[in-house]
Write a structure and sequence with these properties.
34% helix; globular; 359 residues; 16% strand; single chain; Aspartate Aminotransferase, domain 2; 2 domains; seven-stranded mixed beta sheet; Aspartate Aminotransferase, domain 1
Length: 359
């Protein structure tokens, strides 16, 4: 059976090679006679899986020994609360840059625990850009400044990260591992797995060690980074199979040439798709060029009445999951690491065909 071209925003496409390896090891992992999902997380076999995955992730991202890497549950959404609980210390103010739906959710949750002040927002332009850092209002007494590096719904991405005095915190759920990042510029990076890491059910937190151990009194144990760091992310039973699959993805990324090579491939895919949109009188990309996401490409047709026909034709060609988020409409092609150039080319060919027929 031919695999579909999967443009889902998350859970998203996984590398075929990873799925094939998982399939081959499903019933018998390395002669154990068991699937990884049946193993104790304390077993020697799984501990090796976990340690190798962390080592490979550290190598890919360039994570130094002064950071913990935590493999957690609860999704990035749970980190919206964990971050203020762990990082505020004796402060009461945190700064947030509001660039779309996921920033809004983070701000709303943080306001339960502190004064989450919006340093900058692109709301006036319907969240179609990153606010100019020169205009940001950063508080001297802020415990940290939070950004969302890539807004999955709006297709807006930071191409450069700001230099700020407070600890910089980034939700990188939808662009982690898509390009090299200087981790040392951040106090904390977090990401749900279901875009570029692996299946849903796992969340990675990269947190500088000096920020751990100061959780607010009354913080639930499962939200306390020190609890997880001290237990090697095994304070309770972790999502073992997802952790294993993430490890396979890390191996696959290394085999591609690491993040520099992955970034080049992603740039080519994005250029192919954006060029097709920009060179058309039929499709429109709502995000200015300097803020466009390399991972999530929203676009609209000249008449929303054409959307259902476009999606139906796409499905016939096995171009799947192109419907835009319900909050904004239109189309969205998520072209994460595992989405091939071949898939993007197939989409562009279909877009041209649809324009010829309906334009």
């Amino acid at each position: 059976m031919t695999r579909a071209h999967n443009f889902a925003a998350g859970p998203a496409a996984l590398p075929t090679e990873v799925l094939e390896q998982a399939q081959a090891e499903m019933l018998d992992f390395r002669g154990s006679g068991m699937s990884v999902m049946e193993m104790s997380h304390r077993s020697a076999e799984f501990v090796e899986v976990a340690e190798t995955a962390e080592a490979d992730f550290r190598e890919l991202m360039g994570v130094g020994d002064d950071y913990h890497v935590l493999f957690l549950q609860g999704g990035a959404t749970q980190q919206f609360a964990a971050i203020p609980l762990n990082l505020l210390g004796d402060k009461t103010v945190a700064n947030y840059v509001h660039t779309g739906s996921w920033s809004a959710k983070a701000i709303k949750e943080a306001n339960k625990f502190c004064d989450a002040r919006v340093s900058a927002t692109s709301e006036a332009s319907n969240f179609d850009r990153i606010p100019d850092p020169a205009t940001w209002q950063v508080d001297d007494d802020a415990a940290y400044l939070h950004i969302c590096s890539n807004e999955t719904i709006g297709g807006v991405q930071y191409h450069e990260f700001p230099d700020v005095t407070p600890t910089l915190v980034a939700d990188m759920s939808s662009d982690i591992l898509s390009r090299p990042v200087d981790v040392s510029r951040f106090g904390l990076i977090y990401a749900g797995a279901q875009k570029n890491i692996g299946p849903a059910g796992l969340t990675l937190v990269v947190v500088r060690k000096d920020l751990v151990g100061n959780a607010r009194a009354g913080t639930p144990s499962m939200l306390d980074y020190k609890v997880h760091a001290d237990a090697g992310s095994m304070s309770n039973t972790p999502p073992t199979y997802t952790w294993y699959l993430a490890g396979l993805v890390f191996k696959w990324l290394k085999a591609q040439g690491g993040l520099p090579a992955v970034a080049e491939a992603n740039a080519r895919k994005a250029q192919t798709l954006y060029s097709a949109i920009d060179n058309s009188n039929f499709y429109t990309a709502p995000v200015p060029v300097n803020c466009r996401s390399v991972m999530n490409v929203p676009f609209t047709l000249p008449d929303a009445e054409l959307d259902s026909a476009f999606l139906a034709g796409a499905k016939e060609r096995r171009l799947m999951n192109l419907k835009g988020h319900r909050s904004v409409g239109g189309m969205r092609a998520s072209i994460y690491n595992a989405v091939s150039q071949t898939s993007v080319d197939a989409l562009v060919d279909y877009m041209a065909e649809f324009e010829r027929e309906r334009g």
